[in-house]
Amino acid sequence: MTGQRIERLYAFVALEADGGEGVAAGTVPGTRLVMPLVGADEARMRAERPRAQAIATELGVPLLLCRFDRRTDLERVDP
Question: What pTM, to 2 d.p., does this model score?
């Protein structure tokens, strides 16, 4: 953990032909693990631009890099 509070999230969002949206995801290089393109660091998300481009090309849909900045804690899950 970094000791920093997450105040905003960034995500690459796919714009679907029917007007819907979905969080873009891609395979982690060297694995079969699929991870959404979401993060709390804008610079890190901008570094993911080549992966976002590959996903947009593969899916044939545009992607938006979006920032979500209103945090609302909904539930706490304790061990």
Answer: 0.85
